Amino acid sequence: MLNYSLILFITAMLGGLAVLWVPVLKERVYKLLLVFAGSYLFAITVVHLMPELMSHATNSSRVGMLVLAGFFLQLFLEYLSGGIEHGHLHGAGSNHHHHHGAFTPLTLLLALCLHAFLEGTLLIHPSGQGHPHQTDTLLAGIVLHKAPAAFALMSVLLHQLGRRWLALLFLGIFALASPAGLVFSELIQTDGEGLQLMSQWIYPLVAG
Predict the structure, then answer these.
(1) What are phi and psi of 90, to 5 degrees?
(2) Closest by alpha carbon to 109, among 164, 69, 169, 38?
(3) Which DSSP string do the residues of 31-98 spell out, in sequence order?
(4) Full-prediction pTM beyond 0.70?
(5) Of the candidates 82, 50, 81, which has an alpha carbon nearest to the alpha carbon of residue 63?
(6) How far apart are the first and last CA of the chain?
(7) Which stretches are transmembrane (predicted)?
(8) Helical (H) or strand (E) element with 110
(9) What is the pLDDT of residues 119-175, one digit of tens each?
(10) Cα separation of 36 and 141, whole Å?
């Protein structure tokens, strides 16, 4: 778990700090990275997470509702963040810094941190054999997704906040979100009740 936490934290920090060295990332390159990461995560969800989820589901109707709820939760988080983690990002030097939804630096941080926290909980999730296990393939997908998201976050924060130290503080909070989700998942699954809560409620919500 410590190795996973360090990888998640360092990836987010390096992705965000890259803005200081490469202030402008070509939009085409940025979106290609996001498309690849999104496709990879989608494939993992379809071929790994969903079959595993259904293999130990005790109430398939509830699982379906939670997966659907997770989908709408993601739409709500994207509304709060203005969609920057999915490529809706303009260069910091442009005059087109318009973001839809309820975008502010705080709501952006909140939305991305909640998204990252929930992703982190999946890294140690219940298996079909009834015990929690780690997933290296999922870690790779989250890392691929987190680096460009951190780059986008830092790019916007530097422009919106105007103070580098505050933007770095926000980046540090974001970098801790996925490790916090991982620790939460580990702690909650130390007994049978926690494992049941994770497998029957949290896991399907996050998978959605």
Answers:
(1) -110, 155
(2) 169
(3) HHHHHHHHHHHHHHIIIIIHHHHHHT-S-HHHHHHHHHHHHHHHHHHHHHHTTGGGT----TTSS---
(4) yes
(5) 50
(6) 24
(7) 6-25, 32-51, 63-80, 101-118, 138-158, 165-188
(8) helix 105-121
(9) 888 887 655 555 455 577 788 888 888 888 888 888 888 888 878 889 999 999 999
(10) 9
**What would you report as the CA-atom Rg of the chain, rounded to the nearest whole angstrom?**
17
User: Diameter of the chain by CA atoms?
Assistant: 54
Q: Do residues 63 and 132 lie in contact, with contact meaning Cβ atoms separated by under 8 Å?
A: no
* Separation CA 208–CA 195 (nearest Å): 19
| Angle at CA of residue 192, ends 190 and 196, nearest 5° | 105
Cα dihedral 119, 122, 123, 124 sign: positive
- Name the phi and psi angles at 41, rounded to 5: -65, -40
Tell which residue, 162, 128, 175, has the closest CA to residue 13.
175
Q: Which amino acid is at 196?
A: Q
